[in-house]
Predict the 3D structure of the following.
Amino acid sequence: MKTQSPDRPARVNVAAAAGRLGVLTPGLGAVATTFMAGVESIRRGYSKPIGSLTQMATIRLGRRTEKRAPLIREFIPLAGLDDLVFGAWDPVADDALTAARKAGVLEAADLDRVADFLATIKPMPAVFDNHYVTRITGPNVKAGKTKRDLAEQLRQDIREFKVKHNLERVVIVWCASTEIFIAPGPSHETLDAFEKAMDANDETIAPSMLYAWAAIMEGAPFANGAPNLSVDIPALVQLAHDRGVPISGKDFKTGQTWMKTVIAPGLKARMLGLRGWYSTNILGNRDGEVLDDPASFKTKEASKLSVLQGILQPEIYPDLYKDFAHVVRINYYPPRGDNKEGWDNIDIVGWMNYPMQIKINFLCRDSILAAPIVLDLALFSDFAQRAGMKGLQEWLSFYYKSPMAAAGLQPEHDLFIQQTKLKNTLRHLMGEEQVTHLGLEYDP
């Protein structure tokens, strides 16, 4: 007899994406301006949203025999691109057009098509401190007696931005630089401790944490695109849950780490061993300049190093993955600009312990890969809030190098498991069956 499928889950009541959605980015550099220019180019019909799951990916529904595979944007109620309004904070006062030209990501012909639009986006004064990002300076910064004063100014900016542009909702996606490494500590454990530390100008409260706190307090979902702690502390995770605000992070998964989350699952799937993985990068954009500072690089290194351990699970497969060497280097090389180049040398082990090698030379464009991630995180975060999802959004791990996970759980790094989790979350919310690929669609 034919196998019966289980009843479909109840569909979650997702509020309509009515009205305009503001997308605010701390940082108006290469990533943010490429994102904004790209969306406007798409809106004007000059380009397609290549790289964006929300715009170009389909999602299978039901059994293969049903042949239902709508676009994600047709399956769930996402905000439309025409309803997006952009704003930013940055310590450099350049408008988005000037910033984009300085970043050198997009060619002049592409910028000229949207120049009138980009010129209207001027950054608000940033909460910025050279103690946390040493290689950038700028006069467009806020002043306040305490860090809470600065955070309250950010809250006011969000409120005024909503009113000025007649917005229904706002999301915030961190596109600014990597801060110096900060270890979680007592000031991050509870909201009371965190707010007292803001009042005391505690050095363990970085600017990115102030943006995250302000966003949550204003009911704006917050997505962290850098490896900074930012929202990845117990105090703010709890605050986001209590206030019903979606949060996610951290560190956009764009180039070399994205390749690791593709290759490493393949090695593990075949039960091939790993002796070592050496990675080096050269890039010459503002991010590269910031990461040339050892304190900022330490934050990025921790994010990049965590991936292989999580995927390969040496504690479960010691014969294959115990004590493999993993080295990561990033070098600032100005002539390369935003066109990052990553080299990987992978020493693997096969049958009868014979060694083999894989070598990857990825000549990528950092901001071109990051821009569609910003779009997807903005749209999915807004969708999550309208679906009543609060606090940490682990289903968005697909987009991050060092994904946040619930207390006591290890984050999932395998790109393909992350993709399945993302799509199954959407199926669940919309009342569709989970896809398990069991292949039981037959009559014995």
User: Anything to note?
Assistant: Confidence is low (pLDDT under 50) at residues 1-5. The domain at 21-252+368-429 is CATH 3.40.50.720 (Rossmann fold). The longest strand covers residues 273-283. The chain has two domains: 21-252+368-429, 256-363.
